[in-house]
Amino acid sequence: MRVAFFVGNDITSHLIVNQALRGVLEAGHTPYLYFTGQQPNPDAEPELRELFQYERTLLGGYVYPYLDSLPAPLHGTYLSPAGIAKLHRGRARVRSVDDVNDPGFIASLAAEDVRVGFSVRCYQKFRAPLISHFIPEPGARPLFANLHPGVLPQYRGVLTFARAMLHGETEAGFTLHRVDENWDAGDIMSVSTAPLDYDRSVLENMWAQRDRATGLVLSAVAEAEALGRWTDRPQNADLVGYYSHLRRADLDRLARQGIDLLRPQAVIDLLVSSFTPPGSPESFELGGILTGLTSRRPEPAHALG
């Protein structure tokens, strides 16, 4: 079976896809990894610009170039897209995609007979021709799912872990749902939740659930192999909540409640531990690079031990 992953350019999605890649390969399937990008918004609030830097720019702008400069991919660690292509040559397909709705790209999916797809924090909006591609036969339901970081239908939209913490929720999680042309609105296939830890940042709480999120995807891959007979359920319209990006008032509320969007050292520690072997020369070198890049940003006072 050929399985497509449409991957955003943030840390969480790349960790999840690295984990899912192993399971897909072990099951004897061929993964097609389509890496997509998201540009920073120069007009965003300072906290959101900083979030973009730590969640996306460090990974694509510094971690991956460092890894790709090494003589060979580091075994036993997560890999850059180029590292995946090298280490799994002939077993995995890796490609950057500017526009997932481009007719030429959709034609390439058909030519390769890629009929199972998952979106992992891909911020491009999927249009009808692409969605229709994943319908295997007339009248069948599309085998195309989105892994949404939020409990649906209450938390549609972006930065839903931050919203959940603002609302004082005890739990948050990931939802796997069918893709349709509306944001986060397709039928729910599966949900996983875990307790929120208010001593940790928003990003740390989301990262902490990456194993659970990967499990949702791999379970769905197994179901797809068994003809995709999920028991879906429509989203309850009475419970729908949709959240756009955090505004100034929301960010001020987070600060008053002592909730950090991120903690720089936690980001560095996660990147180093995920992409380099512990105690290796590479781990010290990458850690030094990232520390030097981020040393000007102090930790919030309430995050200091």
Model description:
- Pfam families: Formyl_trans_N.
- It comes from Kitasatospora camelliae.
- Residues 144-201 form the Formyl transferase N-terminal domain.
- The chain is α/β, with parallel strands linked by helices and 305 residues long.
- The protein has helices spanning 11-26, 46-68, 81-87, 103-112, 128-133, 160-166, 202-207, 210-225, 248-256, 264-275, 281-294, and strands at 2-7, 30-35, 93-96, 116-120, 144-148, 156-157, 171-178, 188-195, 242-243.
- The strands form two sheets. The protein has a seven-stranded mixed β-sheet with strand order 3-2-1-4-5-7-8. A two-stranded parallel sheet has the order 6-9.
- α1 (11-26) packs parallel to α8 (210-225), α2 runs parallel beside α10 and α10 (264-275) runs antiparallel to α11.
- The longest helix has 23 residues, at 46-68.
- The protein is globular, with a radius of gyration of 19 Å.
Element layout with pairings:
Layout: E1 2-7, H1 11-26, E2 30-35, H2 46-68, H3 81-87, E3 93-96, H4 103-112, E4 116-120, H5 128-133, E5 144-148, E6 156-157, H6 160-166, E7 171-178, E8 188-195, H7 202-207, H8 210-225, E9 242-243, H9 248-256, H10 264-275, H11 281-294
Parallel strand pairs: 1-2, 1-4, 2-3, 4-5, 6-9
Antiparallel strand pairs: 5-7, 7-8
Helix pairs in contact: 1-8, 2-10, 10-11
